[in-house]
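Dock pyridoxal-5'-phosphate; give full complex structure.
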Amino acid sequence: MDEESFRDWSMKAAEWGVEYRRTLRERPVRAQTTPGAVAAAIASSAPETAEPMEAIFADFEETILPGMTHWQHPRFFAYFPANAAPASVVAEYLVSAMAAQCMLWQTSPAATELETRVIDWLRQALGLPGRFSGVIQDSASSATLAAVLVMRERALGWQGNREGLAGQKPVRIYCSDQVHTSIDRAIWVAGIGEQNLVRIPVAGPLRAMDPAELEAAIRRDKDAGRLPAGIVASVGGTSVGGTDDVAAVCAVAKKHGLYVHVDAAWAGSAMICEEFRGYWKGIEEADSVVFNPHKWLGAQFDCSVHFLADPDSLVKTLAIQPEFLKTHGRDGVINYSEWTVPLGRRFRALKLWFLMRAYGLDGLRERIRNHVAWSQKLARRLAKTPGFEIVTQPMLSLFSFRHRPPEGGPADDHTLALVNAINDAGQIYLTQTRVDGQLAIRFQVGQFDTSEADVDAAYDAIVEAAAALAGK
Ligand SMILES: *Cc1c(COP(=O)(O)O)cnc(C)c1O
């Protein structure tokens, strides 16, 4: 591709992006395609000779686009959002053009120094104390893996990396049954083993782990010669927003010298609003906190921020040359690849800088406040609509509901039929979850461009789909 054509296609891509965003409401939210249909339309081997860009671009529109689920659609109410506010997309164009590998300070000093700054902007915005520093990870899963590795190494006197886990006392990690599956995978990958992930029973409307049960489990493990290492607390669990009492968890951890990692991947963004910080009261006592600005804050995917009260323990766990610790950060030179499992690093700080400057913290707060208010309004409307019940009350902007099956038929079948009917209609996109053994439909508001009218449209789409099913 020559310079002229690089210019033309870059412009065309940018124009395409703007038009795509402008017309999103006209598209079905979830891809309306069957398994294998896209693959069948793609050649089975790469071309030997170059093809014109016109043909490639046309195939993108014709073959790929219909197989996309539109995460930036303002009526995307499924999972959690993966936002990409326009200003952060523009930053990603620039990052993509520069394509720097930012593993060390010297491989792009600006990327490192901007990362340190925007992490501190976010720390202040979330109300975390000044002793927290942090790093941008690709995903919350990676941050949680890193935190679990620190728990393991700390408990083993920093010998696990050298000696492996054979012959060691079983390393024990504690969490509730509301945590994300990334915790399980971190435990597997860290070699700790699922049977050493201790699930503490939950209680109360927020499904918080019971601190007394947590402490009892730790004591039992100590008595049995096992090695308690750390606790993963959840703030805003993926299923229905399960949230632990961080202060109580940290108090138990302190008593037993355990490391606390808080997974607030989704809910963390809401903490830029002071009124929501009650959900993570006690957070200043945690050792490690992860939240994904790519979820609710608006940063282009991927962007996960990992805060640390003591980054040295992380560097001690992950750095290849721990002698680096001697000057670690103090001469202004930080090599962030020593804070993460992958060595290579994209320049992720730029989109955070663009995002926070282009919208201002107030602009970002207003969106989150609106999302919470609109979600609560929808929950109230559904609660008053005959045939519907709210299964879990809103935690921030997430709640779950069910519709009564006709003539006492199987509830799960009806719930699945309803969520499928809603998604097939294409107006909105929702997902289901299991609550106390029974399916429920999740609803969350979080897409950057969602309006109150979009949430009102969701009410109509849900009620119409339920009425159509009942009429069958
Ligand atoms: C989304 C989510 C994760 C996983 O995040 P990734 O960045 O995709 O790894 C973990 N925990 C919670 C609570 C989440 O909502």
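Observed: The radius of gyration is 24 Å.
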